[in-house]
Amino acid sequence: MSSFGRLYRVHTYGESHCKSVGCIVDGVPPGLRLTEEDIQTQLSRRRPGQSDITTARSEFDSVHLQSGTEHGVTLGTPIGLLVHNKDQRPHDYAETDLYPRPSHADYTYLAKYGVKASSGGGRASARETIGRVAAGAIAEKYLKEAFGVEIVAFVASVGKVALPFAEEDDEVLGKEYVDLIKTVKREEVDKEITRCPHKATSTKMEEAIRAAKARDDSLGGSITCVIRNSPLGLGEPCFDKLEAVLGHAMLSIPSTKSFEIGSGLRGTTFPGSVHNDPFTQGEDGKLRTTTNWSGGVQGGISNGEDIYFRIGFKPPATIAQEQDTARYDGSSGTLAAKGRHDPCVVPRAVPIVETMAALVIMDMVLQQNARQAAAALLPPLTHLPPTMVLPGKATVDKVIHGESVGEVQGQKTGEE
Amino acid sequence: MSSFGRLYRVHTYGESHCKSVGCIVDGVPPGLRLTEEDIQTQLSRRRPGQSDITTARSEFDSVHLQSGTEHGVTLGTPIGLLVHNKDQRPHDYAETDLYPRPSHADYTYLAKYGVKASSGGGRASARETIGRVAAGAIAEKYLKEAFGVEIVAFVASVGKVALPFAEEDDEVLGKEYVDLIKTVKREEVDKEITRCPHKATSTKMEEAIRAAKARDDSLGGSITCVIRNSPLGLGEPCFDKLEAVLGHAMLSIPSTKSFEIGSGLRGTTFPGSVHNDPFTQGEDGKLRTTTNWSGGVQGGISNGEDIYFRIGFKPPATIAQEQDTARYDGSSGTLAAKGRHDPCVVPRAVPIVETMAALVIMDMVLQQNARQAAAALLPPLTHLPPTMVLPGKATVDKVIHGESVGEVQGQKTGEE
Amino acid sequence: MSSFGRLYRVHTYGESHCKSVGCIVDGVPPGLRLTEEDIQTQLSRRRPGQSDITTARSEFDSVHLQSGTEHGVTLGTPIGLLVHNKDQRPHDYAETDLYPRPSHADYTYLAKYGVKASSGGGRASARETIGRVAAGAIAEKYLKEAFGVEIVAFVASVGKVALPFAEEDDEVLGKEYVDLIKTVKREEVDKEITRCPHKATSTKMEEAIRAAKARDDSLGGSITCVIRNSPLGLGEPCFDKLEAVLGHAMLSIPSTKSFEIGSGLRGTTFPGSVHNDPFTQGEDGKLRTTTNWSGGVQGGISNGEDIYFRIGFKPPATIAQEQDTARYDGSSGTLAAKGRHDPCVVPRAVPIVETMAALVIMDMVLQQNARQAAAALLPPLTHLPPTMVLPGKATVDKVIHGESVGEVQGQKTGEE
Amino acid sequence: MSSFGRLYRVHTYGESHCKSVGCIVDGVPPGLRLTEEDIQTQLSRRRPGQSDITTARSEFDSVHLQSGTEHGVTLGTPIGLLVHNKDQRPHDYAETDLYPRPSHADYTYLAKYGVKASSGGGRASARETIGRVAAGAIAEKYLKEAFGVEIVAFVASVGKVALPFAEEDDEVLGKEYVDLIKTVKREEVDKEITRCPHKATSTKMEEAIRAAKARDDSLGGSITCVIRNSPLGLGEPCFDKLEAVLGHAMLSIPSTKSFEIGSGLRGTTFPGSVHNDPFTQGEDGKLRTTTNWSGGVQGGISNGEDIYFRIGFKPPATIAQEQDTARYDGSSGTLAAKGRHDPCVVPRAVPIVETMAALVIMDMVLQQNARQAAAALLPPLTHLPPTMVLPGKATVDKVIHGESVGEVQGQKTGEE
Which of A154, B165, D139, D226 would be a feasible disulfide site paired with D308, CB 3.0-4.6 Å? Predict the structure, then answer.
């Protein structure tokens, strides 16, 4: 399926060597101001050739808006977008055609489809992500204007070089890392060539990438992403829990190997008494949690805290080092990839992670909108048992008619 | 959404205290022999009260088949299934109703829906998984009969007690762990009370769980699952890559916090030269990989190797220990959960992980079936460039008409 | 697929001779008061044995609510529903098993699935509609409470006996028929044994049905349905135009052969100058149309007028008359159906038509809610060209923020 | 939703005055030979300006294939397609902007979205159908190559001029009309300027259209479509019966008002004894029906006979005649449309009907493929009761393993 989303739907097309790559975005709310520039920014952050530690291919990816807007405003109709493929170099790949590249999609694409694009992996190319990034940029713009949502991703590890996730064995996550999650801005991320906004770590990462490049090798890594100011109540249990759909979205990005929400796998080593996030009353009267090991999601539904997660990326499969491996015909041989390839894709994957986060949140907002707007049209509920409602008179009526839970919580419950 | 799957579709209903929980399974192939016993086995492995380290609640969950079979054979029509709720004890929960339980779904369900079930979390209850397990048992039976697919999950860690994932820093995963993945059987898993089939580790896990129970605390952990003999070519790029849909499925299980395919996050710390899985010719002439750090998936498509992954589960949120936390009305208080709760859900989650794996593979099989059967009806392809086809005469014709890639690979390519 | 809908989703199961038939309804807004009685009413209107011109089988279909409500209020979680199968008489069918019944589903079910239920048509049984009717009853209750929506279906023709659709050749539809559409109530429909609320026609229909029954034959007919007070703006172009989804819904009812919206096929014989519905200002200031040949839908979107359509039902295939037809093995023979069968299903299909209408409108309301609520959160639009906006200052801002078009239309446009 | 289909999926974008209109086609089987010419043929049959009885606008619509093929062969990946918009004349529409056109989409689009494209109806434009036609042309090519499927649509009525559907009151449909359905070829349809392949009727239709054009009026009509050589077993009960999805598809075409399968509404006036289609043994041993009033579909599933249906189109709403109607602001006025408009769209809609038919059949083929291929992998069934299986020993085993029902029926059943 080259489609993602239920109400905010993205459909993509395009291989690396065809005429263009692009997408259709369906379900964009009408009345959003939108121009090609809004989309170009993220596309440019994604493209190769931005620094000498990524691939040297220079693909300038200009987006062309085909439909769905007039006078810079969305019509509510599908938005067609495309980016022409310019740097088509099929000959780069020709010499090694007898081999399926190890850990690459050559073999599985051929097995699945019976034919394959000259580029080998076909839609497994990172170029496929252009359509997603464009679609995500529109979602991000909406979310920012409607809710002030902020989505920031940053490189958390490259090979064995990692941010200080925790300083002590007995802390779930360390203060420095938690602070980054709470406060880091996209501009700070982009200041570093590695997109790791922690200077000391970034320097080591850069060294590691250059060393890998020098020995014709590649490095994996991980990216942490935070979504701030997300509305409360997003996620559609049971199968479309927020973390499940975020996981789906992130693991659909090429080369991803892991997804962790909140404290993640590390968090599973702590007991409930440490890991639970107690509630407290926030300044605005709403319930907040004092810690956020849940990563902003409880029971598959956003709780109003920062939503954060980390995604692992394997080292790129295509390396110039010689590898002993079989040809398609089963005979043994030695393969050394030609062409220019990323020694480490993680820095370039940052906007792709952000875009997938935006797609998920956008779709969940629309789904929850549909429910809340429907519930708000019903007559007030009364005479319900206290096990079913908030403490305080008639509070359910308020909740059900769309008032914020926070306001309701400010009420006295003494009279019960 | 309480639905999962595109062609093999499961729809579930039911909270913990309503009349019944159940599901409709649509898309079951006709002509499969199926009885209630086929389903009951996995349901019984899932239910509480199986040992004294899980919850003491005794829920005997008998499945009742409503439709979709006659004379023990599936008709191809939807299968309705239900399990009556017997142990309804709403009063167990009543005293603590003024509090949203920390890290539980009480607060988010109320925020999302405006009303809540008396049990608090509503569909966040583990009882919701009964329908899934029933549906997965049918899928598993089909996959076993049609392909000999074997799905085995086992507990890999509990709190800080874990299997030896690697013995040395410079190995991606250790031999002992890899061997478990390759060979462990479900019976061996069930021999251990912890469902960790590594005696030494299991003993330590049991101790850790008993200790946590003694101090009214809870423990998280992780489960590794392997799918053996899966057909080659499963997964629907770009958005429905096999690992993306597996991740979605697993992260929809209550309490999950992480998903890793193959070497996972640990694998991202190794360079491509180490992490790549070289190809070799297998005994049957088909291409195989010498290592399997990819976890059986490349480019989002299964490559015929074992598919394995690990899922992290947080410690259960409901603990009898006192917790300082706010009430719904914002006031501070102290909450100590009443009732009987699992100190550690990981052993009971083993069949749930297996069932979700079966649901994903089943759906992917049907999707790939549709494509292959369609391609097989087309006239042979000829005169295609070698960059597009397998080396060897007319091999594309064979591949495209559904013959195995392996057979094709045995051919000579010298004459070109 | 045994599922219908995008946000308000119904999943059904059950053949005529299995344990139960039922459904899961997902997407029900939380906070709706709902009991089994709300659902039973329509189920009872659907069941056989209501009069001596329908089948004599007495199936009392009591609905059992399984989940999704507490204290008579919907939780927003899936609602499980079932009706036990009581009158299981497989032997009624046994003698004729060598024959696929002409124009029945026996042959096509066997061809499609390779196995068949003992009842022959499996899910083609009218009993399958029980789940739909239950789901539709919930939708109808919501639509009535939220918008005052009224859905009324009635029998428009039986065999060659029909309502006076037009009195003159040159009128699109006649006044008497149009008035019925505008005003008829469900109670008036139920007063007639035929469910045709036009006394003279009903009497003739009854005679026709009794005559058909007497000669062991069957009759088809048609049903007109009207949806009043539907919100403006429903329908999701381009593929999910309101009439397209209504057509899909109606043509999924067993035995249906035709669907017409508004003036239907007859309307296509008139020129645009006669068939167009001119606009006028209504009493409330909103635009209304002076005629309604469009049937309440323009460009696939509801325009606020009554939505009405007519569905044709073929004569029931199962008749007691002898029919010359081949057996499964190809040999010629003579088949005379045993058992009790409806000579005319049209009267009993009335609530099924209403239920499918409710399912469609409900789903469309939720989809449009999602869009409108999203648009309402955006900042106001200004400085748009007059070709894009309503005449009158800043009117777009108002429209886009959810105010009714009608209010906006009251403004002066002189200054432009 | 601008998407159609479950496994063969089409997503479209584009209004009449934006940069391009186009689509993404996902789910195309790999290994199909495909070039732009294959698609252009149907696009050219669809475009305006083909004769002086359609609109005078000359839009030459050249399709540009963007992705999904290499060396003229489909890769199994999504196919991106676009057609540039050339004849953009927004000023043609400017003078009448104060009015919502009667029976047009202007008013409902504005009500739904709050903003509207300068062309008024936005996606309600017939230009939106370009993407569908392109996608359908690919489906048609596959169906022809794989099964020899033939899809032919033709104009059946224009205004009050119609084909002789029946010569006698007591015949369901007349021989001449039935013969056309059985035998007419696309070339014969295109020989007539009206696309009605019945010379005498076509001449009258042409006169009627010229007369309507002369008085600045418009005419509706209807199109009959037949699908020959469709595989047996297509259609997905209960909600996705073949006629339901065909109805959905057809009623999503702009201006459609009715859909009838087989004998349609006329057929509902006949008793079951006349309307039933008896079975007989065909020359190839398979069961066939002696009549085909069912239109090739029984129980929602294709039975191997010709699938035929008729769709009604309303007269175009945009006419140059003066119409008394209200402006957006509610004031009364007189509107006379400017620009060049089709007096009758029915001839141009012929390829659009064919394309929607191809999309439906293609998707249903893939869904049934998935089921049959899955069932074929199961072990043989034995010892089933005769009520469940075909007469004759072990025949179910054969059916379930994918052999044609016809072959099975040829077997002896002597023991009966």
Answer: D226
For C200, residues 6+ apart whose C-beta sits below 8 A from its C-beta are none
Write down the pTM of the prediction.
0.94
Residues A322, A335 contacting (CB under 8 angstroms): yes
Structure-token pair, residue B401: 């008409």
* Tens digits of residue pLDDT in D156-178: 999 999 999 999 999 999 999 99
Rounded Cα–Cα distance for residues C290 and C303 (Å): 12
Q: Name which of C234, C369, C382 to mutate to probe chain A: the one with the most chain A Cβ atoms within 10 A of its Cβ.
A: C369
What ranges in B122-226 are assigned the alpha helix state H? Answer: 129-147, 175-183, 186-191, 199-214
Q: Could you tell me the sign of the dihedral formed by the alpha carbons of A308, A314, A318, A319, in that order?
A: positive
DSSP H helical ranges for D114-197: 129-147, 175-183, 186-191
Are residues C58 and B106 in contact, defined by beta-carbon separation less than 8 angstroms? no
Q: Which residue has the higher pLDDT, C15 or D359?
A: D359
- Say how many CB pairs under 8 Å bridge A and B: 464
- D389 part of contact set with chain B, CB < 8 Å: no
- Strands ordered across the beta sheet of C63-65: C3-4, C9-13, C20-26, C79-84, C63-65
User: Locate tokens 């009063």: which residue?
Assistant: B91
Within 13 Å and on the Cβ side, how many CA atoms surround C40? 9
Among left, alpha and beta (phi > 0; psi -120 to 50; other), residue A307 is: beta
Q: Cα–Cα distance between B299 and A116 in angstroms, integer?
A: 13
CB atoms within 10 A of CB A389: 27
Domain range list for chain C = 3-370, 379-407
pLDDT digits (tens, 9 = 90+) for C109-127: 988 998 877 766 678 778 8
Q: Does residue B12 belong to the interface with chain C, where contact is any CB pair within 8 Å?
A: yes
Please report the pLDDT score of residue B90 as a whole number: 47
Q: pLDDT-based confidence at D144, cuts 50/70/90?
A: very high
Closest CA to B370 of B29, B79, B2: B29
Residue C259 three-state SS: strand
Nearest to A186 by CA among A354, A313, A360, A359: A354
Report d(CA C263, CA C245) in Å as an integer: 18
Q: Which residue type sits at B185?
A: K
CA Rg value for chain B: 24
Rounded distance between C-alpha atoms, residue C274 and residue D323, angstroms: 10
**B352 touches C at CB < 8 Å:** no
DSSP helix/strand/coil, D118: coil
List the structure tokens of B225: 């699952």
The residue among D209, D105, D103 whose CA lies nearest residue D155 is D209
Is the complex ipTM more than 0.90? yes
Please list the active-site residues of C.
17, 104, 342
| Sequence-distant (≥ 6) Cβ neighbours of residue D72 within 8 angstroms | D33, D34, D35
> Which pair of structure tokens corresponds to residue C47?
């069941």
Q: Is C37 exposed, middle or buried (0-12, 13-18, 19+ CB in 10 A)?
A: exposed
Q: Could you give the CA distance from residue A161 to residue A207 in angstroms, rounded to a whole number?
A: 10
**Interface with A, mutate which of B172, B241, B258, B352 (most A CBs under 10 A):** B258
Q: Count A/D contacts: CB-CB distance under 8 Å.
A: 152
B33-85 pLDDT tens trace = 999 999 999 888 887 767 777 665 555 789 999 999 998 999 999 999 999 98
- Taking the C-alpha atoms of residue B204 and residue B157, their distance in angstroms, rounded to an integer, is 10
Cβ atoms A137, A359 nearer than 8 A: no
Q: What is the pLDDT of residue B410?
A: 28
Tell me the Cα Rg of chain A.
Answer: 24
> Tens digits of per-residue pLDDT, B308-320?
999 999 999 999 9
Superfamily of domain D3-370: Chorismate synthase AroC (3.60.150.10)
